[in-house]
Amino acid sequence: MDAELFATLAFSTLRAGIPLLYCALGVLLAERSGMLNLGQEGMMLMGAVVGFIAASESQSPALGVLAAAGTGLACGALFALLTLLLQTNQVATGLAMTIFGTGLSAFLGEDYVGSSIDGIAPLAVPLLADIPLFGQALFAQDWLLYLAWLLALASYWLLHRSRAGLIITAVGEDPAVAHRLGLPVRRVRALMACAGGLMAGLGGAYLSLAYTPLWTEGMTTGRGWIALALVVLAGWRTGLVLVAAHVFGMAGILNLLLQGTGIGLPGQMLAMAPYLLCIAALVLLSRQRDFGRYQSPPGLGQNFSPED
Questions:
Q1: How confident is the model at residue 255, as a pLDDT?
Q2: Which of 24, 146, 193, 207 is deepest in the core (most CB within 10 A)?
Q3: CA–CA separation, 79 and 92 (whole Å)
């Protein structure tokens, strides 16, 4: 592999992992508090279409990002309302939101299919961007990519280095015990559900405003589901979520690279590769002796009512 090809692969790999990273961070925050949200795919699509429409009409990608984040936040708030106040089943509610978001995004974006805009431009850091091999990959990306890395660091600090992280963990471990200790279980879970929705919206915004600045129906292509699996693969640990997102981003880029080389395999088989890799990794990790140390929070998916 020559230096130019390696630099291009590194640049593309980091970009491809960002939508997964945003969504996976949202899943991680919600699940650490015990909220099992299977609506991430629909929330990403809603963020992508609303962000694209806002950017297209205003000619401002930044406004599109804000609109996408707000849409994701609203979706997360709706999920919290249904599961925390109305006590609906978390799994069924999440699936319903994915179905709803998929359909509504297609309806809202019908007039924008195939349209393109001037997306978020890369920001090249003087001198550093000229470093061989990794200069372009690390120092000539768009600001939404750097924001994802900053949010990953912030999530690590929140969950592992702060008092708030201890509260989130306690709520996810056993909401009933946390309530008896005086912790605001509903408030914590609502905040984490909203944060998860906001992250999904940002992931959708990255797809339609930076990665490929256009709108096509179903453009997330299952990234919301992969993000759910990545959190399991990472054992609910923030650092491994960051790594896993970029590893699977690289798998997608290698798929495109192999298709371009005319390897002789059907494109459909190559497109399946990231998903097969995800399944294989889950199977292999589940067979490891120490994998049990990183199981899901015991209270994950369990509804809680103070009256119980």
A1: 73
A2: 24
A3: 11
Q: Which residues span the domain enclosing 42?
A: 3-114+133-143+150-294
- Cα 184 → chain centroid: 26
Contact (CB, 8 A) for 201 and 66: no
Strand partners, 116: 214
Q: Which two tokens stand for residue 137?
A: 């990959």
Structural domain contains residue 122: no
Give the strand pairing for 123-124 and 140-141.
antiparallel
| Rounded Cα distance, 269 and 204, in Å | 25
- Residue bearing tokens 């019908």: 110
Q: What CATH number corresponds to the domain at position 14?
A: 1.10.3470.10
Looking at the 3D structure of the chain, how many domains does it have?
1
* Model pLDDT for residues 127-156, shown as the tens digit of each residue: 888 888 788 888 889 999 999 999 999 999
Residue 280 predicted with pLDDT over 70 = yes
Q: Report pTM.
A: 0.92
CB-based contact 278:248 (threshold 8 Å): yes
Inter-CA distances, 128 with 116, 122, 149, 206, Å:
30, 14, 18, 24
pLDDT at residue 294 tops 70: no
